[in-house]
């Protein structure tokens, strides 16, 4: 039960941070480069933003 709860907290924090960073990139007018960097990190196997 604890493992499921910790995993949920981890996943929520990941998505909260991702949305925060996406909004900041949109506001700064650099969403395209944010998206390119994000997908490059995902392809490389990076698990953090």
TrEMBL record:
Gene Ontology terms describing biological process: tRNA modification
InterPro entries: TGT-like_sf, tRNA_ribo_trans-like
UniProt superkingdom: Bacteria
Residue spans crossing the bilayer: none
Ranges where the tRNA-guanine(15) transglycosylase-like domain occurs: 1-42
SUPFAM superfamilies, alphabetized: tRNA-guanine transglycosylase (SSF51713)
Protein known as: tRNA-guanine(15) transglycosylase-like domain-containing protein
Organism name: Cardiobacterium valvarum F0432
């Amino acid at each position: 039960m604890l493992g499921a709860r910790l995993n949920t907290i981890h996943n929520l924090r990941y998505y909260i941070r991702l949305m925060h960073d996406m909004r900041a990139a949109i506001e700064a007018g650099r969403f395209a480069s944010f998206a390119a960097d994000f997908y490059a990190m995902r392809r490389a196997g990076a698990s953090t933003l």
